[in-house]
Amino acid sequence: MAVPKKKVSRMKRGQRRSADALAAPTYIEDKNTGELRRPHHIDLKTGMYRGRQVLAVKAAE
Predict the structure, then answer these.
(1) Predicted confidence (pLDDT) at residue 5 exceeds the cutoff of 70
(2) Alpha carbon distance 45, 43 (integer Å)
(3) Which pLDDT value is given to residue 38?
(4) Hey, which residues does 22 pair with through a beta bridge?
(5) What predicted TM-score, i.e. pTM, was given to this entire model?
(6) What is the pLDDT at residue 1?
(7) By the 8 A CB rule, do 5 and 15 touch?
(8) What is the per-residue pLDDT across 20-55, written as a single tens digit (0 to 9) for each?
(9) Within 10 A of 48 (CB to CB), how many other CB atoms are there?
């Protein structure tokens, strides 16, 4: 059975747990529309991704 030889210090325990923190999602300003959107995601309002039209935009009713 694995038994720790020494007590883990508060610093080492904190270093291990530092990766568990939740990060807020990042948003960038769109170059064309100026609205905020997630990086590396398609802009659903315009259907553009990296300067190309990849989705057909539905007509506004």
Answers:
(1) yes
(2) 6
(3) 93
(4) none
(5) 0.55
(6) 84
(7) no
(8) 999 899 999 988 889 999 999 998 888 889 889 999
(9) 19
Phi, psi of 50 (to 5 degrees): 55, 40
| Token duo for residue 32 | 């064309």
**Total residues found in the chain within this entry:** 61
**Residue 37 zone, left/alpha/beta (φ > 0; ψ -120 to 50; rest):** beta
The CA dihedral of 6, 14, 19, 26, to the nearest 10 degrees, is -170
User: Is the separation of the CB atoms in 55 and 42 below 8 Å?
Assistant: yes
**What is the Cβ-side half-sphere exposure of residue 19, based on CA atoms within 13 angstroms?**
4
**DSSP readout, 9-59?**
PHHHHHHHHGGG---PPP-EE-TTT--EE-TTS-BTTTTEETTEE-SPPPP
